[in-house]
Amino acid sequence: MNESKVREVAAGIYVVHLPLPMKPTIVNVTLMRSGGEWALVDTGVNTEDSLAALLAAMEHVGCPVGKLSKLIATHHHPDHFGASRRLKELTGAPVYMHALEYEASTHYAPQEHSDEAIRFFLQNGIPLQRFARVPSAGEFWSQLYAPVQPDHLISDGEVLRLGDLEIEIVATPGHTPGHCVLYLRRQKIMIAGDHLLPKITPHVGFFPGGPENPLADFLESQQKIQRYDVEMVLPAHGGTFADHRYRARQIAQHHDYRLREMLDVVRRAPHTAYDVARQAFGFDIDGPLQVQFPATFETLAHLEYMRQQGTIVREEREEKLYYRAA
Ligand SMILES: [Zn+2]
Ligand SMILES: [Zn+2]
To answer: pTM surpassing 0.85?
Structure first.
């Protein structure tokens, strides 16, 4: 095992770097040991590379597969929960996950776009007819994603015990509806999943059937974690860092800036979410779809936030939704 891929960040707490076949190219998972028991937080994607790296790391730190007594997920995304089915089979460990994340995992990555999804894309100005072919999420993700049904549904404020470790579950909805960070009370360590990242801002998108105001949820979750006393943050992407409050405020400021930028765009003229996204994120119609779609969903999260504040309104014209300043 390459030493650089596993690092003991505190006594019995190991960060393991696993490969991803896309950007960001690494996801960090956490192994914890206390009183002869082991727990794993997040799994990486379901590829041979990633699984081999994880098993090698477990061997390196002296965690036999049969000794894993908890497998805890921060959220349902493929880089966090993709290998859960195989790991459950290999280790027999009970799986812990928030109910909303389990629900999301069951309808993640459909093979076909539903009529509802297509209507949603068109209404929001995504020029589907201009794209040769839009692969469904399922085509891209199906190989990487093999989720399992959890054995235990975790909820906000619950404390899981592992030997002497007290692992507090802190629900931090926003990036996903049931995202949770884990707070190790004695060590003052926060395992942050995708809620708090040092270099990039977590994606916050609006989707049909999802929460009505995901950006409000996310910003509230950034406030919430600031109430904790934290000495070290273990993010899922990027290096460990210390000042969680500083980073939470930076992320909130980033969204504040985006909100004002988008308000300026719709003040000039009514626009669809796609057209606002093009201006705010600076992509054009020939750009990669992996940029255009998430940017549009993220833009929608901002527009819906302002619509619920009353600063902008939405109007339907010729089956498209336009946003304008109120
Ligand atoms: Zn994620
Ligand atoms: Zn992630």
So the answer is: yes
